[in-house]
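If it is no trouble, might I ask you for a protein's amino acid sequence along with its backbone structure tokens?
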Amino acid sequence: MIDLYYWTTPNGHKITLFLEESGIPYRIIPVHIGKGEQFQPEFLAIAPNNRIPAIVDHAPADGGAPISLFESGAILQYLAEKSGQFLPADVRGRAEVSQWLFWQMGGLGPMAGQNHHFVQYAPEKIQYAIDRYVNETNRLYGVLNRRLAGRDFIAGDAYSIADMAAYPWIVPHEKQGQKLADFPHLARWFAAIEARPATRRAYARAAEINAAPTVDEDAKRVLFGQTAAKTA
């Protein structure tokens, strides 16, 4: 059994996508980040960076004590290795998946996240910042579009954790100022993943937990006012 500490963000969706695809038993423990639940001591013991998602695996492969893990990319790798799914065993296939997983973690996610912040949430509209992150998001969409030319999935013919990592960050493309019609290979890939039964189940779980996502002023204070000295 996997305990998944989760909220309905792109990084959270990565893990429900994997768990729904793999069939590993899991239970969701909601962590409402807009209410500051990520700063509770019991959560920080698992995720010291006070970010979701995090997991606790109560049945690790070595048969020992439960393993806790934070960082969505690390969790995807761990679950893929645990289950033997969505990460090739051969060295070349594994390298292909890994480099695109880290591309998402180091590029697409952070840049799209800054896009979301300055376009949707910043208290003042700073045009330079908006242009910077909307344009960089556009560049990264172009990278992914070119990669998907002639391939069903990011790492080749097989669906992998690289696809699961990237897809949730493409879901809010309209809010990011992007048009999928400008990226035909990406649009084809996106539609294929959207249609997967496990994807539909994962996003249905999200709707059950957070039916009407909103970020009010109190939530903005919690989410965007953090320093080393002030974390709630």
Remarks:
- The mean pLDDT is 96.
- Residues 91-121 form the longest helix (31 residues).
- The chain has two domains: 2-85+200-224, 91-195.
